[in-house]
TrEMBL record, chain A:
It comes from the Bacteria. The lineage of its organism: Bacteria, Candidatus Adleribacteriota. InterPro entries: Thioredoxin-like_sf. It comes from Candidatus Adlerbacteria bacterium RIFCSPLOWO2_01_FULL_54_21b. This is Thioredoxin domain-containing protein. Keywords: Membrane, Transmembrane, Transmembrane helix. The chain crosses the membrane at residues 6-24.
Automatic annotation (TrEMBL), chain B:
SUPFAM superfamilies: Nucleotide-diphospho-sugar transferases (SSF53448). Keywords: Glycosyltransferase, Membrane, Transferase, Transmembrane, Transmembrane helix. Residues 46-214 form the Glycosyltransferase 2-like domain. It holds the Pfam family Glycos_transf_2. It comes from the Bacteria. The chain crosses the membrane at residues 6-27, 288-312, 349-369, 381-401. PANTHER family: POLY-BETA-1,6-N-ACETYL-D-GLUCOSAMINE SYNTHASE. The lineage of its organism: Bacteria, Candidatus Adleribacteriota. Belongs to the glycosyltransferase 2 family. The keyword Glycosyltransferase applies. GO terms for molecular function: glycosyltransferase activity. This is Glycosyltransferase 2-like domain-containing protein.
């Protein structure tokens, strides 16, 4: 009888652990599904914009400059992916696949934005191509990410395209080659608009000095304490 | 998963297993309600009140004993002054003078609580010998309820009461009141398992033959109340909990005195556990050897580990936030409202397990308060959950350090 009680307590405890494991797993699965839906939405939006662009040949630039395309959706997607990566690990196959898809969407958005800015002279976007690694070989990447996140929140018009340098994706590798991002010079690395690559961590003040155009952007109502 | 988190999961598994086991015991044997019936027989009882510098509370303690609902000719109160340097001696003498038939006053050089108790045993004559710390007060029917419990089974050799905090006022006292209520549940469940591990100073009662059989109290690293319980188990003597016998005790009201008391208890446990190591995992000693002793020791180290793990992560987080803020130059700002979305809330497995452990803790406290027939106010719960996690690690670490250095702690 006594032995049965020891066993019963063990079974109940193990069951509680198993339930906790199951619930946590289900919530992670829901997060992944959520990201997938968001990616599909962004994908459709980009396709729609491209189609619109192709159909009209030129765009109503006034409308476009008022509506800075997909940056909000991409930012939200980036935050969600970051959480999924934290929970499931950066080597999780599902996370890697989602990151690849996200990177492709970013590249498409980047290309579309460049194309629009060439045709619409009034549309002068400010964007940063940011390259990081979270394989443990970039101790400053987290801080650099914090600075860029803060800038993005402060200046909603600023577009930040962040890419995992170590992600094995041919389109990304092409972008890295085209923008001459040299891994040997160290990460984090970033390029502002069409400028040459800048390497190493830069704090908020340094970034604001590096991108004087930021002053032309409207700031958000981000509250400071 | 890092090795540190794995260790934490193991600690949580142990804590959860223990709580589940005790709740199963509760479901098996829920405590009975108090009955109005009187004892069939009133054995003679001697209550020993060892005191050292207890001028503030001694009178109240003695008054509570004088007010006990018990035949006066069957009750002897023995006040033993262990070389106090305050007015304790005068108060004790005064009471002995006023109630010569009920109260015996003994005075000795300071030698520690166990020496005072042994002197009291020597000079008392009751069939039942009780102890009451001079900072505690028994309920009027506490003795009758305990005697009824003795009557229920002749093999019962010692009894512990239900111990509650006397009029908690400060946050620290309120924290302890919840902790004691939690302890009431634990004590009753240990009783169900025949594995009570301590006979605390406030109103534990022994049959006199216990001392004849296993000898008097020992120094026992200043934890004589724990050691005698260990020794009784090692001799197969039964200890039970009288859950209808209530006693109220004052508790330390400063952090310093609380830490001092708890370090003494914890070190006493570690050292007595070492002295009685032959009982660990020994089926001859039933649940006491197989469950309570191993879990108490594991709990000590698991608590220490959890505290160190939490402290390390908290300090790392704070230090990284400070260095990040300095390095990035980002001014303090409110988090993005989007971060309140469920997506960003941490929902890993550990969160759910910690929530289950906390829920079972609250259930145990509520069951404890039902046994004690008391209701804890919300602010006591707040004090407990806000303070205990920060204060307990201090005495755990300090007592571990003291035990490693073989440093004795004072009993007062």
């Amino acid at each position: 009888m006594q032995g049965q009680k020891y066993l019963l307590a063990f079974v109940i405890t193990a069951a509680i652990f198993a339930t906790a494991f199951y619930i946590a797993g289900r919530l992670d699965a829901r997060r992944i599904a959520d990201i997938r839906v968001a990616q599909e939405q962004v994908s459709v939006d980009i396709l729609s914009l491209e189609t619109q662009f192709d159909l009209l040949g030129s765009l109503d630039c006034l409308t476009l400059s008022d509506n800075p395309v997909l940056s909000e959706e991409l930012n939200s997607l980036a935050n969600r992916l970051s959480i999924a990566e934290q929970n499931l690990g950066n080597d999780n196959a599902e996370v890697v696949l989602l990151k690849k898809k996200y990177s492709l969407l970013e590249i498409k958005d980047y290309l579309l934005m460049r194309e629009i800015s060439q045709k619409c002279t009034k549309f002068k976007p400010i964007y940063i191509l940011y390259f990081y690694s979270n394989n443990g070989d970039c101790p400053d990447c987290r801080r650099m990410g914090d600075v860029l996140t803060y800038l993005r929140q402060t200046y909603p018009g600023l577009r930040v395209y962040s890419f995992d340098y170590r992600l094995d994706l041919s389109a990304l590798n092409t972008l890295i080659t085209l923008r001459k991002i040299d891994n040997e010079k160290g990460l984090p690395a970033f390029a502002v608009n069409n400028g040459r690559p800048i390497y190493g961590f830069k704090n908020l003040q340094e970034m604001e000095t590096l991108i004087p155009e930021l002053k032309t952007l409207a700031t958000s109502t981000t509250e400071t304490l | 998963m890092d090795i540190g988190a794995l260790g934490l999961y193991m600690c949580l598994f142990i804590a959860l297993y223990f709580e589940v086991f005790l709740l199963i015991s509760f479901i098996e044997h829920a405590p009975s309600k108090k009955e109005d019936a009187l004892p069939r027989h009133y054995p003679s009882v001697s209550i020993l009140v060892p005191c050292f510098n207890e001028e503030k509370t001694l009178a109240h303690t003695v008054e509570s004993l004088l007010a006990l609902q018990y035949p006066q000719d069957k009750l002897q109160i023995v006040v033993i002054d262990d070389g106090s340097r305050d007015a304790t001696q005068a108060i004790g003498r005064d009471y002995a003078h006023r109630y010569p038939e009920s109260i015996l006053f003994l005075q000795k050089k300071n030698g520690g609580k166990y020496t005072a108790l042994n002197l009291g045993i020597e000079h008392s004559h009751g069939e039942i010998v009780g102890c009451l710390d001079a900072d505690s007060f028994a309920a009027k029917d506490a003795l009758i309820e305990a005697v009824k419990r003795f009557e229920s089974d002749e093999n019962i050799m010692a009894i512990t009461p239900v111990m509650q905090v006397y009029k908690p006022r400060t946050a620290l006292e309120r924290m302890q009141s919840v902790e004691y209520t939690f302890g009431i549940f634990y004590k009753k469940m240990f009783d169900n398992l025949s594995a009570i591990n301590v006979l605390p100073g406030p109103f534990s009662l022994y049959k006199r033959e216990v001392f004849k059989q296993i000898g008097p109290f020992r120094h026992a690293h200043n934890a004589e109340d724990m050691e005698i319980a260990f020794r009784m188990h090692s001799h197969g003597l039964r200890i039970v909990n009288a859950h209808t016998s209530f006693v109220y005790t004052t508790v330390p009201n400063t952090l310093r005195t609380l830490l001092r008391q708890r370090i003494r208890w914890s070190q006493g446990f570690l050292r007595n556990a070492r002295d009685y190591k032959h009982m660990f995992f020994n089926p001859r000693f039933g649940n006491f050897g197989m469950l309570i002793l191993p879990f108490a020791l594991t709990g000590f180290f698991a608590g220490t580990y959890t505290a160190l793990y939490a402290a390390y992560h908290l300090l790392s987080l704070v230090s990284s936030r400070v260095t990040d803020t300095t390095a990035t130059g980002i001014p303090p700002h409110l988090p993005d409202p989007a971060a309140l979305n469920w997506f960003y809330i941490n929902t890993d497995m550990m969160l759910f397990i910690v929530l289950v452990v906390l829920c079972l803790t609250v259930v145990s406290i509520i069951l404890g308060s039902r046994i004690a027939q008391t209701r804890l106010p919300l602010k006591s719960f707040v004090a407990y959950f806000a303070l205990f996690g920060f204060i307990a690690p201090l005495w755990l670490l300090r007592s571990l350090w003291g035990a490693l250095l073989a440093r004795e702690s004072a009993w007062r």
